[in-house]
Amino acid sequence: MPKKILLVEDEKHIARFVELELKHEGYDVFVAFDGREGLELASSENFDVLLLDVMLPGINGIEICRRIRTQSKVPIILLTARDAVMDRVAGLDAGADDYIVKPFAIEELLARIRTILRRITPDEKIGESLHFRDIEIDVAAYEVIVQKNKLDLTKTEYDLLKLLIEHKNKVCTRELILTSVWGYDTDIETNVVDVYIRHLRNKLPGDMNAYIETVRGVGYVMRE
């Protein structure tokens, strides 16, 4: 069954071009041209990936992302003409898994979609679990349990935590995290890693450094 993608883009010539390319790659594509229609579709249908333009009439892409995150962990990629760091950080804070800055090469967008789809259908051993102190990751169930409570993580947050635990007691550089979690050579700034580390720290119990230690100028580590 082909993967379903929702594209929310108000520039119709861009939407049509991206739609045709995605269909050519075998995806089942739905298109909305304004934020309200896009939010309604995203809330009522099950999609494998959402592609959201940031600057939309009605409701902007960041707000759609924020609302969707209250009800779904569907992977979200933001399409934005804004390349200021704070705009991108705002999108990631709203729960986006990735972003791509316009104008972009369609090959790059397709590569990012393939990468994000691989991340949500991981080739893992049935029953495999990872442990760190009182954290348990049930890989087959894609769940994280901390102090007997299920942790509500986005897929990117999950992948980041899993990477850190797999490399426990070893410092993960920001560059390693970007390559491993996002899965490709990327122009995304390393401060995106800091945003997601903050997300994880806010969701883990205890003080901010209880589980994840910052190694200044290098990266992060989880030490037993």
UniProtKB/TrEMBL annotation:
- Tell me where on the tree of life, at the top rank, the source sits: Bacteria
PROSITE patterns (UniProt xref): OMPR_PHOB, RESPONSE_REGULATORY
A biological process term (GO) from this entry: regulation of DNA-templated transcription
Q: Which Pfam families match?
A: Response_reg, Trans_reg_C
Q: Which residues form the Response regulatory domain?
A: 4-117
Keywords carried by this UniProt record: DNA-binding, Phosphoprotein, Transcription, Transcription regulation, Two-component regulatory system
- OmpR/PhoB-type domain boundaries: 127-224
One of the entry's Gene Ontology molecular-function terms is: phosphorelay response regulator activity
Gene Ontology CC terms: cytosol; protein-DNA complex
Q: What ranges are recorded for DNA binding?
A: 127-224
Annotated transmembrane regions? none
PANTHER family xref list: REGULATOR OF RPOS
The molecule here is called PhoB family transcriptional regulator
Q: Which organism is it from?
A: Lysinibacillus xylanilyticus
